[in-house]
């Protein structure tokens, strides 16, 4: 059975909240020194039968949409790309000129994923994660590949 990608609905809330807790330690994500409940944001879900296997959440602003979270349970299976494609299609249909996404300096897989899909490095926020860790102590000190997590990297894509 193929994976089904669709917009998030109210009934998805428990599964979305659980996925964000499993993948991010909590559905509340630090963004610009504020906690944002990603489980209540618009976005898309990916279901394989009744199993939630992917999620993308969005902050929709005038002039750009920001991807706050993008998760695929089975990495390298194409679900992340399908979720991103759904976001791009909707953004273009609403004449949104640009998408952005932030990631931590340790997430080299995300660097590759987004750049291969037309995103460009835009800026580095030195020490942003260090500052956020003071408000959200659950943010680990080390991440992927044993790299210290300190900085936030912004990628952007013009549509």
Core attributes:
159 residues; alpha+beta; 4 helices; globular; two-stranded antiparallel ribbon; 7-stranded mixed sheet
Description:
The chain is α+β, with helices and mostly antiparallel strands and 159 residues long. It contains four helices and nine strands; from the N terminus they run E-H-E-E-E-E-E-H-E-H-E-H-E. The strands form two sheets. The chain has a seven-stranded mixed sheet with strand order 1-4-5-6-7-9-8. A two-stranded antiparallel ribbon has the order 2-3. The longest helix is centred in the middle third of the chain and has 15 residues, at 79-93. The radius of gyration is 15 Å and the shape is globular. The model has no long low-confidence stretch (mean pLDDT 95).
Helical run tally: 4
Q: Record the strand order, biggest sheet.
A: 1-4-5-6-7-9-8
Distance between the termini: 31 Å
The shape is globular
**Low-pLDDT runs:** none
Q: What structural category arises from helix and sheet content?
A: alpha+beta
Number of strand elements: 9
Mean pLDDT rating:
95
Q: What percentage of amino acids are in beta strands?
A: 35-45%
Q: Which value, in Å, is the CA radius of gyration?
A: 15 Å
Oligomeric state as shown: single chain
Report the biggest beta sheet as strand number plus sense, adding barrel if it closes.
7 strands, mixed
Helix and strand element order: EHEEEEEHEHEHE
The level of helicity is 25-40%
């Amino acid at each position: 059975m193929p994976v089904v990608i669709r917009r998030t609905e109210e009934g998805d809330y428990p599964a979305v909240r659980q996925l964000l807790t499993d993948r991010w330690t909590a559905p509340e994500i630090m963004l610009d020194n504020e906690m944002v409940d990603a489980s209540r944001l618009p976005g898309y879900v990916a279901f394989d039968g009744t199993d939630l296997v992917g999620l993308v959440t969005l902050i929709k602003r005038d002039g750009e949409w920001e991807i706050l979270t993008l998760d695929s349970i089975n990495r390298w299976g194409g679900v992340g790309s399908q979720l991103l494609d759904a976001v791009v299609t909707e953004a273009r249909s609403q004449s949104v000129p640009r998408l952005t996404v932030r990631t931590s300096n340790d997430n080299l897989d995300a660097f590759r994923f987004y750049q291969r899909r037309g995103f460009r490095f835009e800026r580095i926020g030195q020490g942003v994660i260090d500052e956020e860790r003071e408000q959200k102590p659950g943010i680990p000190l080390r991440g992927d590949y044993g790299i210290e997590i300190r900085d936030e990297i912004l990628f952007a894509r013009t549509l």
